[in-house]
């Protein structure tokens, strides 16, 4: 019985994707736990801790196809441990009483923590794949619009000219930092856990460290001599990085949302995007639904990330109050960030860029967008502060007399300091873009 947007079957994949749901499916999680138990048993047999025959049987039966799911479901109704019901069912299906060697020397948190890290390994691959694709699309966009002029805005007001390529280049630099950030996470986060009840590995015997290391190696994870049952800074860092990434994706979506407003119309979600965005009562509208959903998902990720940080506070050697809060938060965060990445890829692949509207908006307040240029030109002759006061006077006078900034400026005595080139720039503000081209080219050539 679906009860949330994550598992709706009719109105499905609004805040999720098929890939994310498959990755975090309950049965997929059970299989990860079984994979860990299989790797542990095989390793223990290699070190002579359990019989080889027992390890072979456990390894063979550590597949969901051998587990009675109805019986497992009933067992979870009466046993509130995260993994014991699954272990009981696994023990049942192992022949020759070899099930007694299941989960030998491990503890519940070892399996669930390591299972979570296996999930993290998969989600990091998805994040890396999608970020690299986002980077590629944005680089192509920056190349295409490296010289496309538009108005730069500051405090919500018209500022001075920029290019759309510059705006995109800033997005690219942010995405590239995330690529590096998530890559650097791997050495600290992709570390499994096999430390026993309170971190001593006592039940694993005198070969405990070797067994733990080799088991995790089989799973493609690193080993740390020091247990991290209650040391969750690695998980908090991961949660924080996910939230920061979500913020960057939401920032891009939010900017596209703004630039697509009816009174701006410079950039917007394309009509070819996967999801129809029409209004139920206003046929002329094309709502930026994907960008809106991205921002919504960011808000939830931000809230959930605070739980992962708060969960760094543990008491003693095990503390489920913090641990379970973290375990509950991460799957939602992973699904949401995977969905955000999928949506922004859809948006960017179908983005509509209206160059004519950009130029029209650039010229909307005419020569005023060159006020900074004029300020520094006059400043060379009368001083920057004096020039600023003078231009304030000219702007106010132009507003009161209903004349243009250009006309009012040229009627003032300070206009004698302006060259023909200066007057040309006033009429062609798209030429006042500083080192924009060099910046964009540097980003493209990175």
Automatic annotation (TrEMBL):
SMART domains in the record: ADSL_C (SM00998)
Top-level taxon in the UniProt lineage: Bacteria
EC number: 4.3.2.2
Listed InterPro entries: AdenyloSucc_lyase_C, Fumarate_lyase_CS, Fumarate_lyase_fam, Fumarate_lyase_N, L-Aspartase-like, Pur_lyase
Entry keywords, A to Z: Amino-acid biosynthesis, Coiled coil, Lyase
Enzyme class: lyase
CDD domains noted in UniProt: pCLME
Coiled-coil intervals: 348-404
Domain Adenylosuccinate lyase C-terminal positions: 366-444
Cross-referenced NCBIfam families: purB
Name this protein carries in UniProt: Adenylosuccinate lyase
Gene name of the encoded protein: purB
């Amino acid at each position: 019985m679906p009860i949330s947007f994550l598992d709706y079957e009719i109105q499905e994949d609004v805040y999720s994707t098929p890939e994310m749901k498959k990755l975090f499916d309950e049965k997929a999680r059970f299989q990860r736990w079984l994979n860990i138990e299989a790797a542990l048993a095989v390793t223990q047999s290699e070190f002579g801790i359990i019989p080889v025959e027992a390890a072979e049987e456990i390894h063979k039966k550590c597949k969901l196809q051998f587990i009675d799911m109805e019986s497992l479901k009933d067992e979870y109704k009466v046993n509130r441990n995260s993994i014991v019901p699954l272990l009981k069912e696994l023990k049942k299906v192992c022949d020759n009483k070899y099930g007694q060697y299941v989960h030998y020397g491990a503890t519940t948190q070892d399996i669930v923590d390591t299972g979570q890290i296996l999930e993290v390994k998969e989600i990091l691959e998805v994040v890396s794949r999608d970020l690299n694709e986002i980077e590629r699309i944005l680089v192509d966009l920056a190349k295409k619009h490296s010289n496309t002029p538009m108005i730069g805005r500051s405090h919500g007001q018209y500022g001075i000219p920029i290019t759309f390529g510059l705006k995109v280049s800033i997005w690219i630099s942010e995405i590239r930092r995330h690529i590096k950030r998530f890559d650097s996470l791997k050495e600290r986060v992709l570390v499994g856990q096999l430390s026993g009840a309170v971190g001593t590995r006592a039940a694993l015997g005198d070969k405990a460290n070797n067994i733990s290391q080799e088991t995790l190696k089989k799973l493609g994870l690193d080993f740390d001599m020091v247990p991290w049952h209650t040391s969750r800074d690695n998980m908090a860092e991961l949660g924080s990085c996910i939230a920061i990434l979500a913020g960057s994706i939401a920032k891009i979506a939010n900017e596209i949302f703004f630039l697509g407003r009816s009174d701006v119309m410079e950039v917007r979600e394309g009509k070819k995007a996967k999801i129809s965005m029409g209004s139920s009562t206003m046929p002329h509208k094309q709502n930026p639904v994907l960008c809106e959903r991205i921002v919504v998902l960011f808000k939830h990720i931000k809230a959930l990330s605070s739980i992962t940080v708060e969960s760094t506070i543990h008491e003693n050697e095990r503390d489920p109050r913090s641990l379970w809060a973290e375990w509950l938060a991460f799957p939602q965060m992973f699904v949401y960030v995977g969905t955000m990445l999928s949506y922004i890829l859809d948006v960017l692949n179908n983005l509509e860029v209206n160059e004519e509207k950009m130029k029209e908006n650039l010229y909307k307040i005419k020569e005023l967008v060159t006020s900074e240029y004029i300020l520094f030109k006059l400043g060379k002759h009368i001083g920057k502060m004096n020039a600023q006061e003078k231009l304030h006077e000219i702007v106010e006078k132009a507003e009161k007399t209903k004349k243009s900034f250009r006309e009012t400026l040229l009627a003032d005595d300070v206009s004698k300091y302006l060259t023909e080139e200066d007057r040309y720039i006033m009429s062609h503000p798209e030429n006042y873009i500083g080192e924009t081209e060099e910046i964009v080219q540097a980003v493209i050539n990175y």
